[in-house]
Amino acid sequence: MSDTSQNSDRSQDPPDSGFGFATRAIHVGQDPEAITGAVTVPVFQTSTFAQESVGKHSGYEYARTGNPTRTALETALASLEGASFGVAFASGMAAEDAILRLLEPGDHVVIGNDAYGGTFRLISKIFTKVGITFSSHDLGAPSELAENWPAKTKMVWAETPTNPLLNIVDLEALAAVVHANDARLIADNTFATSYLQQPLHWGADAVVHSTTKYIGGHSDVVGGFVATNDPVIDTHLRFIQNSVGAVPGPWDCYLTLRGVKTLAVRMDRHNSNAARLVELLVNHPAVGTVLYPGLPTHPGHEVAARQMSGFGGMISFRAAGGRDAAMKIIESTRLFTLAESLGAVESLIEHPGVMTHASTAGSPLEVPDDLVRLSVGIEDIDDLVADLEHALDS
Ligand SMILES: *Cc1c(COP(=O)(O)O)cnc(C)c1O
Q: What residue ranges of the chain have pLDDT lower than 50?
């Protein structure tokens, strides 16, 4: 089938549809279904679509290339990111892989010096095999990158806040440096979500999400998404989506769409719960440095306050007693579940050095071994405070 047929039929809402964020999350791309009036976007569990005559079809031919449940998800998420185009993938890593395929052999990609472990692994273990080089930099200092701009850099890959150190990158300042050097800025917006931060507004060329996290929000589905206003990037992504085929199934799209409807209310609660727990942490003797962009002492606080509309639900901190104390805290909580991942309704606790970021061990991206990461959920705050206090006291 042709690679562009779905493109011509895609009707993305313009970024300025006039409605607020929470309204768009519930309505954009999600009109009642035409035949029955079903209020919820149906799960189109089909692999192919009947054609009226050869080449004459509804806009859908084969479900790798396009599926109406996926179109609804892509349209809604693009609108939330203030983007003209959105492309969904089977996972956040599949979405990253699709963007990185913009690079050609010989190109260089710059990543942050505390990039997400999976991003580091994908670039260092897979993309270097096809002649792409990379280097890691402190993206919190765009002027330093400008002075030490690596030759042949075509792409800069930024996260803000970063995972798991919660460093902040000034996207506007970084975009200016990247564009002055004819490269593209890609922003991983998984931690902040489109509700708290819209990187395209600050100059990013594309935004990537692991929708597995806050957007899905319920720890029941894995997915990825890319938003862009650049038709060249959109065409590339559509081509990769169809050619490589790392597409989300209709049930996954349905679950993600169901999750995103409540993103705004969930994020408000994640924000307020995290802020309360930070108060507990900064005053507790078992806790060393607390990494949270909402703290006025955080080096990125000013930028975060300008660039984000809230500080999010992720907190990292260093255990005052070192690695063993960190392990003890992590294994002593009852409500905070010991697990990888983040961004869902339930609170999670983990040890990045051994768990999510093990792939960075021995590299310049290695994280401290006394680091504890919290994904603060939306439970009753008093219960979360009591649970964490009990674990710290032990
Ligand atoms: C989880 C995560 C990813 C990868 O997404 P998957 O859906 O797990 O493939 C990428 N970036 C960040 C910041 C993440 O937290």
A: 1-15
